[in-house]
Amino acid sequence: MTTPKQLPLNALRAFEATARLMSFTKAGEELGLTQAAVSYQIRLLEEQLGRPLFVRKPRQIALTPAGERLLPEVSEAFTMLRKAIGSFTRDDDGTIVLTATPTFTAQWLTRHLVSFHQRNPGMALQLFSTHRMCYFDSDPIDIAIRVGDGNWPGLEAHKLFQTDFTPMLSPALLAKAGPLDHPADLLRLPILDPRDPWWLHWFREAGVPEPDLKDQPPNQFGAQMLEANAAMAGQGVAILTPGFYRAEIAAGLLVTPFPQLSSDRSAHWLAYPKARAGARKIRLFRDWILSEVARDFT
Known about the structure:
This is LysR family glycine cleavage system transcriptional activator. The chain is built from 11 helices and 8 strands. It is of the alpha/beta class. β1 and β2 form a beta hairpin. The mean pLDDT is about 90.
């Protein structure tokens, strides 16, 4: 096999499309070329490589062993090129694509968007509220708000705030329950989502090493804000992050019966690919959220 002096990008592009679609005609339609032009480019590539890449049969084609060997590498190279071009395109537009957990989105981010737009007029946010972990190499995401330890290879991570938690309930349920003099008194009340590991963590740090939760209804809510809604409706006691519910506490919708505040050492982080750290829209959002969070969680 001879090595070409110049990389035959047009011919490689024609080869990749044809091998992927198994059709000269369909490859031409995708590339905006005639079938004859696609066939010509592939023949040029075959001449440069010194071996055939396709077996031409009546009304169908098949890859030769050489073509099968070449295809994965060429496909990967074009995928990387598309991603590189796509990242530059996303960096230049005025929309930040962001993914964050439902509770963070509903209880903090959407409540501060006015501040962001005042500081960055003309910049738009496209929000995806989900617990699913995004993958920057395949998902069209600019920034993610993640919960964890901040150690994600290839990503730049900025700590927003430590994840802490404490029990909360409605004033009406507290009045109905009577005095809660000791953390163990909470066990007289319905515990929302008793399988949440935060409960064991909090009880142990509050001096209740073996809380009896086995008779509690095994409800699971899937999102902290849903537990908070149930708690405000007087359905039971939820274990929540106080920083998300400052407005509800101030309005008298939720109360914290004990001062004990616990943490499982996880935190909320702002994360994005290190390769895109210089993108203007990422810098704008990063600078805004770090300053805004500092006022609410410190």
